Amino acid sequence: MRTFVTSMLVVMCLGLSACSTTPKSQYQVDEQRASVRDMAGQTLAQLYKANPGSRNAIRNAAGYAVFSDFGLKILFLGGAKGEGLAVNNRTGQETFMKMVQLQPGLGLGANNFRLVFVFDTPEAFNNFVTSGWQFGANAMAAAKSKTEGGAFSGAVSVSPGVHLYQMTETGLIVGVSVTGAKYYKDDELN
Description:
The chain is an alpha+beta fold. The protein has one domain (2-185). The chain is built from 5 helices and 9 strands. Strands 1, 2, 3, 4, 5, 6, 7, 8 and 9 form a 9-stranded antiparallel beta sheet that branches. A hairpin with a 5-residue loop joins strand 2 and strand 3 (94-102).
C-alpha cells in the first residue's frame, strides 16, 4: 500500500509541475529558449553521428521537432515530461513545445531520452504544431511494426508523413516507447 501511495505522489508531482502557472521574467524565457535550442542542436548532432542518412531526411523534410524527455516509473504508474522545439524547414519558424506522458504497466526506474520527429509534409508539421498531438497505444503498435529503411533507417513511421527517431545518451533506439504522450505548444516560450 505504501508503494502505491508513493507511486501516486510521483505521478501527481509530474503532472503538477507540467501545469505550473508561475510567470517567468523575459530573462528566464530567453534562457529557457536558449537551453531548448542547445538541446535540439546536441540531439541532432548525436543523431547525425549515429545515422548519417538522417541529415538528408531532416534537411528535405517539411519540418522537424526535437524533444528531451525525462521519465520516472515506480511499480504500476509512471510518467514523463519534456520540452522541445519544432522547426518549419520552409520558413525557419521555431515553435517551442512541451510534452507529458503517462506510462502504465509494471516497472521501476528513471530514464532520459530524446525524440526527433521528421514531418514529410507541411500538413503533418502544421497539424503537430497547431493542434498538438496525442500518441496512444494504437499508434504505438503501428510504430513498432514499421521500422523504416534508407534515409529513415533507425526511425519508425508513427503516422502518415511522420517518422520518429528515439535516442538515449548511449545511442539510437529502434522502436519507440511514447505511449500515452501528448505534445502541445509552450505558451510561455512562444
